[in-house]
Amino acid sequence: MSECKLSFDAVKVARREAALDHGLGAFYFSARGGFLMAVIPDCNGSPHLVSFNIGDPKVDPCWQWDGNKDKPTLSPSLHWVGNWHGFLRAGKFVSC
Fold this sequence. Notes:
Layout: H1 13-22, E1 27-29, E2 35-41, E3 47-53, E4 64-65, E5 74-80, E6 84-89, E7 92-95
Antiparallel strand pairs: 1-2, 2-3, 4-5, 5-6, 6-7
């Protein structure tokens, strides 16, 4: 079984734990802006908080966000290689 690793850049531990308590499919926007934080499964199905850049197109990768904070849609797909691949559409995560 492969080992899965994840970096939690600029995420406070309390916020990370609170998001993980909400379980798979939870998401929130970072207080500093520019990032959507989402709880998605790792290769074993355990929840992990992952950040997606939605604010600075000069930083790669960057996702397009529809501006909806309640039911966001991001494109292109979200791909955490070896763990999960899918879409965030109207606030719901949809696996490929």
